Amino acid sequence: YRHAAGSDRILRPLPLVSRLLAALLVLGATACSGGAAPASADPLAGVYRVGGGDAAIANVQALAEAFSAKHAGVKFTYDTSLGSDGGVNLAAQRELDLGMASRELAPGEAQLVDYVLVGVAGTGLLVHQSNTLTDLSSEQVRSIYAGRVIDWTSIGLSKQLPILPLVREKGSSARATFEGYFFAGKPAYGGGVLEIQGGDQIRQAVAFQPGAIGMIGVTGDDAVPSGTHLMTIDGVWPTKSALRDGTYKLRRPLYLVYPRSGEQRPAIVQFLEFVRSAEGQRIIDRF
After folding, report:
1. Which class for 215: exposed (0-12), middle (13-18), buried (19 or more C-beta within 10 A)?
2. What letter would DSSP give residue 56?
3. Does 279 or 19 have the greater pLDDT score?
4. What span, in angstroms and rounded, lies between the C-alpha atoms of 88 and 100?
5. What percent of the chain stands above pLDDT 70?
6. pLDDT for the residue numbered 122
7. b vs e for 138-167, b when ≥16 Cβ sit within 10 Å of the residue's Cβ?
8. What is the pLDDT of residues 171-198, one digit of tens each?
9. Residue of 250, 229, 32, 237 whose CA lies nearest to 120
10. Segments in the chain forming alpha helices (H)
11. 97, 268 contact by CB (below 8 A)
12. What are the φ/ψ torsions at residue 224 (nearest 5 degrees)?
């Protein structure tokens, strides 16, 4: 090669290694001066376990979806087969990141877990669609479940029809609310009361048996199962507003619970802050 100005001095090509080093230096300088550094991964990303009673699931899922929209790497899994007891116990033992409880906490539990309110639910009484009665007084409900009233004609039905009272399984929050209100926590059930496992099974049994009455969880805008209808209690229907302001007495809180001791995972700390925020409270108010 020769200079463009016409000099006779010979210019020899750079060795291959030297040319590669020069190219790398140019690329490095370009990256430092104008190239953007890649975004770091979300430190909150991960899978988080939530479990417990099913009454709070719609509220919790709505909150979790809104939070995950801000943190795409955050995923929640749910197990509603555990019931409130399981949710509280497993959260206290850190086998769950968050537990769901649809009842008040026992004093011993309150020493192990903290909580945040995510809504209110109630216990409703369901009867067969052919039952023309629409309201029961508290005393009538107590009499039915204590076995003192055994036929619907005793409380106003014109056609003779034996009463089949159904209760949820022990440990159910719907049952605990029912027993706390009508029996001050010390139920004295009559011999004809049948225990049924699960709210769906109660619904199916009531729809099948014309004389049945059964307890189910309600949140204010529930779809009443086909073949059944809800009763008002002391003239009050379990609407959202009646549950919130306490007009409907058979009600209970919906809690997210987490361990009192030790540090929480960072995503759980931020999620709980989101639940308590104005945005989180607006989501809760929808339920």
Report:
1. buried
2. G
3. 279
4. 7
5. 86
6. 92
7. eebbbbbbbeebbebeebebeeeeebbbbb
8. 888 899 999 999 998 999 999 999 999 8
9. 250
10. 16-33, 57-70, 83-92, 107-110, 138-146, 173-183, 199-208, 240-245, 266-276, 278-285
11. yes
12. -75, 130
The structure's pTM equals: 0.73
Looking at the structure, give the CATH architecture of the domain made up of residues 46-120+253-285.
3-Layer(aba) Sandwich (3.40)
Amino acid letter, residue 168:
R
Structure confidence at residue 2 (pLDDT): 42
Provide the 8-state DSSP code for 152: G
Residue 260, C-beta contacts closer than 8 angstroms, at least 6 positions apart: 111, 112, 113, 114
> CA gyration radius for the chain?
31
Q: How many whole angstroms separate alpha carbon 114 and alpha carbon 103?
A: 14
Please, which pLDDT band fits residue 36 given cuts at 50, 70 and 90? very low
* CB distance 84 to 214 below 8 Å: no
For 84, the token pair is: 């409130």
Give residue limits of the domains in the chain: 46-120+253-285, 122-252
Query: Which residues neighbour 11 within 8 Å (Cβ) at sequence distance 6 or greater?
Result: 1, 2, 3
Backbone angles phi, psi at 131, to 5 degrees: -75, 120
Please give the helix or strand (H or E) that residue 186 lies within, else none. none
Q: Which residue has the tokens 């809180």?
A: 253
Superfamily of domain 122-252: Periplasmic binding protein-like II (3.40.190.10)
Helix (H), strand (E) at residue 258: strand 251-259
Alpha-carbon gap, residue 141 to 233, rounded angstroms: 9
Residue type, 179: E
- Residue 83's pLDDT band, with cuts at 50, 70 and 90, is confident
| Listed ranges 52-56, 83-87, 130-134; the one with the highest mean pLDDT | 130-134
